[in-house]
């Protein structure tokens, strides 16, 4: 059974605004939105990806 403390987070590229990645984060430990540097296949470079709601 899945715990309610860990949620799925969709990551969106800050440059092309496409939703490229999904990840799982802890709702208890990480209250703010995630920001990760990930590879964007449309821009063909590493860009900042932010968590969407």
From TrEMBL:
GO biological process: translation
The family this protein is said to belong to: Belongs to the bacterial ribosomal protein bL33 family.
Signal peptide extent: none
GO molecular function ontology, one term from the record: structural constituent of ribosome
Name the UniProt record assigns to this protein: Large ribosomal subunit protein bL33
Gene Ontology cellular component annotations, sorted alphabetically: cytoplasm; ribonucleoprotein complex; ribosome
Pfam families attached to this UniProt entry: Ribosomal_L33
Ribosomal protein listed as a keyword: yes
Keywords annotated in UniProt: Ribonucleoprotein, Ribosomal protein
PANTHER family: 50S RIBOSOMAL PROTEIN L33, CHLOROPLASTIC (PTHR43168), LARGE RIBOSOMAL SUBUNIT PROTEIN BL33C (PTHR43168:SF2)
Alphabetical list of NCBIfam families matching this protein: PRK00504.1, PRK00595.1, rpmG_bact
Domain of life: Bacteria
InterPro entries: Ribosomal_bL33 (IPR001705), Ribosomal_bL33_sf (IPR038584), Ribosomal_zn-bd (IPR011332)
